[in-house]
Amino acid sequence: MPSTIVIGDVHGCADELEMLLRAAGCSPQDQVVLVGDLVAKGPDSRGVLAMVRELGARSVRGNHDEHVLRYRRAIEAGEPPPELGPDHREVARALDDQDWALLASLPLYLRLPELDAIVVHAGLLPGRALEQQDPQLLMNMRTIRADGSGSRRSDGVLWASLWPGPELVLFGHHAVQGLQHHPYAIGLDTGCVYGGRLTACILPEQRLVSVPARRAYAPTTF
Fold first, then answer.
1. N or C terminus of the chain: which is more exposed, having fewer CB within 10 Å?
2. 191 has which bridge partners?
């Protein structure tokens, strides 16, 4: 029976992505889904995007994908582009039309109804319909404050610990927290680009597989 392999934040770590797919026993019949942040910080963003195309993989949009897209949108509109750090600027200058088209096509969330699952980059507010979620929180949320608002910071309760289900949510974005395994939510950002690991959750059995980073590509300044 084909599996669905959901993969945490890759951040341009193409070698580790290839290693993880081998470790997960990925076959042509399997579905590969990524939680976003395909590009930036790591060594080979274009290589990751090429692999996504070759695999026919699906992905949601991460905040770092959005950073470079925002730059591209400003340039195309003839507006002053937003300030980018050196790494993101390098990525934005290197991408070709195919790469930009792939990034621009990434949705903010994916429903996997056959698995009763949702994939999102960062987080969801419990009690709010998926279609009514704040796009910025979908790409950036880490915690929920005491007043019930979503936060990009670690100044509240982990949102995933409050997610009531029944749909299982698979997400990334929170490398400092590492692997999260809550009753109805699994966080897969294990900090590969910072020298940690790249992690996948294989559905439907929820089997976790990970591989170590070859080295730290970026400083751990969260």
1. N
2. 197
